[in-house]
Structures are given as structure tokens and as C-alpha cells.
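hi support,

uploading two proteins for the ticket. first:
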Amino acid sequence: MIAARDPAPEPPQTMSDPADLLAAYLDFYRDAVLRKLEGLSERQLRTSVLPSGWTPLELLKHLAHVERRWLCWGFAGEPVTDPWGDDGPDGRWHVADDETVEDVTAFFMTQCRRSREIVAGARLTDVAAAGGRFTPPAVRPTLSRILFHLLQEYARHVGQLDVVRELIDGAVGE
């Protein structure tokens, strides 16, 4: 089970710097994912309620790989073994039976921490490193483009978790 968390507030209306806004909203959505999963039993985290078949725990692991793929391997150009996780670029998300909820949660938290470090050391106009995900002649996106992609990915998946949580136990909202 994922421990209860105090809801992170949405970034303040007075925040106007684009870099600060992107970082703050990413943290807001990272926290929202964990809030949506808190209180679910191990069985609920590992059981799908959707025709597509993904489980809440698989989504959490997917998002950890998204962070790793876009910021560590993509933007920073760091060598990353298996950047797509167990899934492959077009495969289904997967959490092995021997992976605990704590393991997947820790992996997610570690990747989010590393992403924050990478972003803190760069400017929005910086271009992704050559190599890693963006090997020439591939177009290398700016950090702002990557962060906008991550933001939309999180927003979409938090919305999906809203529906999943409502189907599991009727919880709605935050």
C-alpha cells in the first residue's frame, strides 16, 4: 500500500517564471499520481479495471521510465540500460510478481529526484545532449519541449487514474 500524503498545492497564481512553473506543475502532478494510488491495497494496485488491462502499479512504473527516458537518457544523454523498461517502445506496461509496491514506488521517487537534478542544472533553451535517445541525425529537443511533453503525459495519466480510482472504490477529486 502507498502511504497517505498531504496534497501538494497547485503552484501559486503569482508564479510567472516559465522554468519555475514547469518544475512546480511537474511536481504537482507527480504528487497527484501518488495521491491517486494511496490507500489502495496491493491487490487493487495490481489489478486492472480497464479493458486495456493496465494496472495502477504498472502506470506508476511506466511514469518512472518516462522520467528516465526523457530526462536522463534523452536530455542529459546519460547511458541508460533498458530505457523502455520491461515494456519495449510499443509494448504493454509490466510489473513482475517479485517487484513490490515499495520497489516500484522507490524507483519512481528516485527517477523524479534525478529528473529534478537534471532540470535544476539546465536552462529551458538548452538542447538535449547528442547521443542517448537523440543520436544525430535525430532532432534534439530543448528542455522546454521535453518538460511540456512530460507535463502533458502526467496530466493525461492522472486523469486516467481519476477514472480508475472511481471504478475501484468510488473515490473522486484530489
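and the second one:
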Amino acid sequence: MAKKGFLDGYKTYNTDSGFGSPGEWRETFKQRMSKEDATLIITEIAQSPHEILGIKPGASANEIKTAFRQLIRQWHPDLNQHRITEAEAMSKKIIAAHTLLT
């Protein structure tokens, strides 16, 4: 009997062509939400981008990036299956705030 491998039973992806360059990843991220879309989301809620990310106005780019990563990790829909609609809404707010501040 063959020994079971680490990834046996898990869905894997073909990565023969690589994951893409950092520039391609940035462009893909930008395509997901434009500044106009982000502005619409932020104006629908009564919070500023700084309040959503929990940072002070005038925060550095590194502080914005750190706050974004922490919040998106916390509110990612894959990690919040028990409250998926709330997680999706919060993720959109977080991405919109990050889009407007960067």
C-alpha cells in the first residue's frame, strides 16, 4: 500500500507557469475595485476610511498596509462562514478604505 502524501485529498492548482509577477498581482487587485467603486461604498456608510481601518488621519503607508492586512485577515469570508454576509460586507468596506488611502 502506498503511503498517503501530504496533499492527497486536497484540491491543488496548476502552478507550472508560476504565480505571476508582483505587477500582475497589483493590476488584478486594482481591477477588483476602482476608486469610483470604493468612493460609492464609503459614501454609503457614515465612516471615513481611517475609521474603518482603525488608524489616525495622516497615518503612514506602512500603518495603512498593516491595518488593512490585519482586518482583512480577521474579516475574510472564508474564515467567517457562520456570518458570511456580514464578513462580505465588512471585507468590501475594508478593501474600499484601503483603495482610497493608497
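thanks. also noticed: The CA atoms of residues 35 and 83 lie 27 Å apart.
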